[in-house]
Every structure is written in structure tokens, then in C-alpha cells.
Design brief:
Elements lengths: L12 E2 L23 E3 L2 E2 L9 E8 L12 E8 L2 H4 L4 E8 L49 H5 L5 E6 L15 H14 L5 E2 L11 E10 L1 H10 L6 E7 L6 H4 E2 L2 E2 L10 H9 L1 H5 L3 H10 L9 H4 L13 E7 L7 H13 L4 E6 L11 E3 L5 E3 H14 L11 E4 L5 E4 L7 E9 L7 E4 L9 E4 L7 H5 L10 E4 L7 E5 L2 E8 L7 E8 L9 E8 L19 E6 L3 E5 L4 E7 L14 E4 L5 E7 L1 H5 L2
Parallel strand pairs: 6-7, 6-9, 9-10, 10-13, 13-14, 14-17, 20-22
Antiparallel strand pairs: 1-2, 2-3, 4-5, 4-8, 5-7, 11-12, 15-16, 17-18, 19-20, 19-31, 21-30, 22-29, 23-28, 24-27, 24-30, 24-31, 25-26, 25-29
Helix pairs in contact: 6-8
Length: 624
């Protein structure tokens, strides 16, 4: 895998057009400055005409037959490239965005109810997405593809390719949502760009991509950002870099959490089959692909929530060892659709295998930070997010020497909306600090303590998740509630930053049933009357039956105490001086989990439980 830049182009200059005899070998650096582009301040400049760009549509042949009709599926690729690639022999790199959302999505696909009489029990045998179509997928008379990628990058000397996932839009086949078939359907476009696959025009005439250098970068948001992760794990030649934004790295953790069926934020009830129907469209879902979708509905196993072969095929983390592209990860710290564990687990694996990487974290939710978001580097230079993305592609696809890899690896937006830089993430100075749970009274709110005596009262709660929202359960921490337990620290003497994954260990019993939801929220409680308080910092969920493995469940004996351990979603957050840390424990989460009939009773032993936080500076920085 690459450990340094793809080549060097120095200074600011204009180079005349010249014929290029053959595309560059995949992953090779250019031997000479590229023809035709203009570089200034380490960035390609918009010198090519978008209005005169060449547009074409091709159908790329894949090795798949997802609809079982005996013919290889073909996926659509819409292309925009500088006119000079046709008239003067200019060869350019490609920025590819593949998507299942181009056209004909099923916008009102029916969702299953999350109201259940009781939770699933026993073990198996062994997205949402942004909900956004990225344009009509029809080429216009005037050169302009849907979206903004071609508007920005074609004038800068790139070709932009917008692909349509197998089984969606105008492509053949049936959608498979995240598995190897969808991966290979996406990879086929890169293989065609590199001369290793076939493509055809509307008349069936073979088409070659003689206008490209063979160097490809991928980007996209949400599902469109997940596809680059998927393809990168194949190690496909020619894929030099990816920029996944709000992307999934493991579909199990998108629709499940430690054995629980847990929805992506904002889409309660969604599962892999629902997303498949959405991308397939109403007609394809009801007719040509009905059997394939029914198979997904069965194999996703909503009955147990276990990590099965179905989910293992949609887990890209083990495949990071094959990644040969550099990776620029972008994610929102408050994204509860594609939760932060998706980028954090991916980032950890990239680090493990030495993949060249960069990280940009912002305070928004699902999506990117905005093109104008600006960071000032330690050397005083300032770059917007879009400029950073531009420079990243220039470095890896054109070989421009712009120092983007020499800059701090992590850009992070703090709570005051100012961007800063860090050497890595989680912060290398973060240390695990364990806080005990203390309760002197069975009914009164408890405390988070660093050391010393802990009250040993047993506390109980009764699940009423159908009737109470999480905001109701988090509020009024000084008041006892029969439906949640709350533990708060003393007021902080100084600002405290956490960076990484909070963890919970809770000793409890399920007293009157054999299944339950377990939910933990980490909360920032400001001074009384403070605007915007409380703030839910992060969340985590667990199925007690999966206390030892997410792959299979074990029966729970009513009334018996067990130790349950689970991680919350990763976070980088600063608790301000004068605020208090809070832990709220309850059962069913109206926003995320299945909701059984109320009445499940849980008993918690606080003295045998703990909250572990990744505190930058350790216990000394925490102050207690």
C-alpha cells in the first residue's frame, strides 16, 4: 500500500495540451507534469469549460446476475469530461460517485411497526440513508450532470462519473444492499476505466475509456460514501483515494447494536429490506426483485438481532487489510443516522494497517461540514473544507505537491463551531477513567464518584419506553423517576474533554421477564436554568441475551444479577467547568429500539457498576 504521495508537481504553472499515448498504470505516479491543468497554491484551477464538456452515458458490464435472468447485469455510468479529452488527447483522472438513489426510488415504502408485545428471545442458528435522490439520472442537452461534482471538478481537469448501483435506476438487476454483489457492481466501473471490463453505448457498441489516466478517486455522502469504503476493501487497481462522508463501515452496527434491533436515527423501523425496496423502486420491488427482497427480509434476522453471516458479508472492517487507496474520512460528531462508531471503527482499522489517511470531524449531523467550513493550520494558513478536498484529490490523482499530507492529520470542529487541528484521533492523551455509581437510597438519584465509599442501595426502574421520550427520561436529574435511573457527578472545576468510546458496566437483573432493552445515555447537565441544558452527549444499547457475544444470545434467568458491559457511540466533547457529568440508564428507547409492552422491571446494583470515560489528561484532568 502507498506510504507516500503519488508524485510531485511543483509551483504554479500552465502546461499546454499534448497527446498522451497510453493511460498511466494504476497506482503509478505521473512521470511528467500533466498536460493542460493549471496549479496555483497547490490546487488545480478552473480553466476548462463546463459548457463545452463532453457528456456520455455507458452501460458497464458486471460479473453479476442479481436478477437471475441468465444475462450479466450492466450498470449505468454518466460521464462528464473536458472537451480537450476528445479534441486534443488530454487524459485525466476520474472522480466517481456511485449511488443507489439516482431515480425511481420508492419514497413511501411501508415501514414495519416497532411496537411489539414482547422482545425477541433466543438465538439464531449460526439506511437509513439520507433519503435523497441525487437527480433524475437523465442527461441534459446542455452539459451538466446532476449534483455539483462536475460543476466544480471538470473545469479543474477531472472527469466526473456518476454511477447507478446494480438493481437501481437505469441499471440492470436487483439491489442487494451492501454485500459483495453491490461491491462488484461498483468496482466494474473502475475496472472499465482501467481497461479491464467492457462497456457499451445505447446502441450496444463497445466503448473504451481512452480519455482517462486510469487514476480514480471516489466520494459521496451516506450510502454514496459507503460504496467507496466497500470498493476500497477489494484492493481494486486504479482506485487511488476515497473521500467517504457520513459513511457506513459495518451494516450490522447501522441496524443493530450489541444484539438489539436498533434503528438509524430518524428512521425508526427501517431495516435492510426497507432500504432495498426504497432503492429498487415500487415496481421492481413488487415484480422482478420480489424474491430477492424477501430473502433479504428473512436473512437480516429481525427476530434475534444477532450478528449472522448476512451481516458478516456487510462488514467491511476485516477487509481494510486489502485497502490500497488513501482515505479522507469525513463525519459529523452528532450524526445519529450513520452513528460515530462507523467512522471510528473504520479509522482504527486504517491506522492498524498503515493506510494513508486524514480525518475531518464537524459538529453537524448526517452529511458534510459545508464547503465554506474553514480551518486555520498551525502555520497560519487557512483552508476551507472544499479546498482541502480539492487539494486531497490533486495530490492523490494528479500528483500535485501541496503538502496536504504534511498537515495535521485531524481537523475537528469544537462546540463553539471553531475548527482546530489535532495530531490524531482519539486524542493520544486520552486515558480511561473509571467512575463508580453510588446510591444511598433505593429511589433517589445517585452519584458518579471517582473513589471512596459508595452507597450500596439496590435501585429499580420499570420500562415505559412507549410512553416516555428520551428527552423526558433525561430531564430533571434531581428528581426520582420510576422509569429511569440517573447518576451525576459534582460540578466540574475545569473544562474536561473526552475523546473516544465511553463504556458502561452495569450489574442488574431483569426481574419479571426474560428479555429487555438496555439503554445508557451520557449527558451534560449545565447549571440550573442554563440555556440548552441538558445535552445528550452519546448513547449506547445492549440486548442482555447478547451479554457475551453479539453473534448469539444466551437465556436470561429472571431475578438473577448479571454484569453487562457495552460501549457507547464514540465522541469528542468538552464538558465545561461548572457543569456535571450525567449517566442515565433506562430500558426501551423510543427513538431507536423495539418497544415492547410496558412493565419490564430492572434492578441495578450501582456499587458494582461503573462508567468509564476516555478523558484527555486522565483522572488528573477530570479533577475527582
Amino acid at each position: 500500500m502507498p506510504s507516500a504521495g503519488p508524485g510531485r508537481i511543483l509551483g504554479a504553472y500552465v502546461v499546454g495540451l499534448a497527446l498522451v499515448a497510453a493511460p498511466l498504470p494504476a497506482q503509478a505516479a505521473p512521470d511528467a507534469p500533466p498536460p493542460g491543468i493549471v496549479v496555483r497554491d497547490g490546487m488545480t484551477q478552473p480553466v476548462f469549460s463546463l459548457e463545452e464538456a463532453v457528456e456520455e452515458r455507458v452501460w458497464v458490464e458486471t460479473p453479476l446476475d442479481t436478477d437471475h435472468d441468465g444475462r450479466r447485469d450492466r450498470v449505468v455510468a454518466d460521464i462528464s469530461r473536458p472537451r480537450e479529452t476528445e479534441t486534443a488527447g488530454l487524459r485525466v483522472p476520474v472522480i466517481l460517485e456511485h449511488s443507489p438513489y439516482r431515480k425511481d426510488t420508492w419514497s413511501d415504502v411501508p415501514y414495519p411497526s416497532v411496537l411489539v408485545d414482547e422482545l425477541p428471545q433466543g438465538s439464531s442458528s449460526g439506511h437509513s440513508s439520507a433519503r435523497r435522490a441525487d437527480g433524475p439520472g437523465i442527461l441534459r442537452a446542455k452539459a451538466n450532470l446532476p449534483g455539483q461534482l462536475d460543476d466544480y471538478y471538470v473545469p479543474r481537469g477531472y472527469a466526473v462519473v456518476l454511477g447507478q448501483s446494480v438493481g437501481t435506476g437505469d441499471s440492470d438487476g436487483c439491489p442487494t444492499t451492501g454485500d459483495s454483489a453491490e461491491t462488484l457492481g461498483t468496482r466494474a466501473i473502475i475496472d472499465w476505466l482501467g481497461g479491464r471490463a467492457r462497456a457499451y453505448d445505447a446502441s450496444g457498441t463497445p466503448v473504451r475509456a481512452g480519455w482517462t489516466t486510469g487514476a480514480v478517486g471516489m466520494t459521496g455522502v451516506s450510502y454514496n460514501g459507503t460504496l467507496p469504503n466497500m470498493v476500497a476493501t477489494t484492493g481494486v487497481p486504479g482506485l487511488r483515494t476515497i473521500v467517504p462522508v457520513s459513511a457506513i463501515s459495518n451494516w450490522y452496527d447501522y441496524y443493530r447494536a450489541n444484539g438489539l434491533v436498533v434503528a438509524p436515527g430518524g428512521f425508526q423501523g427501517e431495516d435492510a429490506d426497507i432500504l432495498t425496496m426504497y432503492t429498487a423502486g415500487r415496481d421492481r420491488s413488487a415484480e422482478d426483485c420480489a424474491a430477492e427482497i424477501a430473502e433479504i427480509a428473512e436473512e437480516q434476522d429481525r427476530g434475534t438481532g444477532d450478528y449472522t453471516r448476512f451481516w458478516r458479508e456487510r462488514d467491511y472492517l476485516p477487509g481494510v487489510r486489502k485497502v490500497r487507496a488513501s482515505v479522507f474520512v469525513v463525519h459529523g460528531l452528532n450524526d445519529w443516522n450513520v452513528k460515530t462508531g462507523q467512522f471510528a471503527d473504520w479509522w482504527d482499522q486504517l491506522d492498524r494497517y498503515g493506510v494513508p489517511r486524514k480525518l475531518w470531524l464537524h459538529q453537524g449531523g448526517h452529511g458534510g461540514p459545508g464547503s465554506a467550513a474553514t480551518v486555520t493550520l498551525p502555520d497560519g494558513r487557512s483552508w476551507t473544507y472544499k479546498q482541502t478536498e480539492n487539494r486531497w484529490f490533486d495530490y492523490w490523482l494528479w500528483g500535485v505537491d501541496n503538502d496536504v499530507m504534511a498537515e495535521p492529520r485531524v481537523v475537528l470542529q469544537r462546540e463553539d463551531r471553531a475548527y482546530t487541528t489535532y495530531r490524531d484521533w482519539p486524542d493520544p492523551a486520552a486515558r480511561k477513567v473509571s467512575l463508580g455509581l453510588s446510591a444511598a437510597d433505593p429511589a433517589a438519584p445517585g452519584a458518579l464518584v471517582g473513589s471512596g465509599w459508595r452507597g450500596r442501595a439496590i435501585q429499580s426502574l420499570v420500562d415505559a419506553g412507549r410512553d416516555y421520550t428520551p428527552n423526558q427520561l433525561v430531564g430533571e436529574p434531581g428528581t426520582a423517576s420510576p422509569h429511569r435511573l440517573v447518576y451525576t457527578s459534582r460540578e466540574l472545576r475545569r473544562d474536561v474533554r473526552i475523546s473516544g468510546r465511553p463504556e458502561l458496566r452495569v450489574r442488574l437483573s431483569i426481574d419479571n421477564r426474560t428479555a429487555a432493552n438496555l439503554t445508557g445515555y451520557l449527558v451534560d447537565y449545565g447549571p440550573a436554568g442554563a440555556t440548552g441544558s441538558p445535552v445528550v452527549v452519546t448513547r449506547g444499547w445492549l440486548d442482555p441475551q447478547n451479554r457475551t457475544s453479539e453473534a448469539y444470545g444466551r437465556p436470561v434467568r429472571p431475578g438473577r444479577m448479571y454484569d453487562y458491559r457495552w460501549s457507547m457511540e464514540p465522541k469528542d466533547y468538552i464538558f465545561r467547568a461548572g457543569h456535571r457529568l450525567g449517566l442515565v440508564i433506562f430500558s426501551s428507547d423510543q427513538d431507536y429500539t423495539l418497544l415492547p409492552l410496558p412493565g419490564t422491571r430492572l434492578s441495578v446494583a450501582p456499587a458494582s457498576s461503573a462508567l468509564t470515560l476516555p478523558v484527555v489528561g486522565g483522572r488528573t484532568a477530570l479533577g475527582f
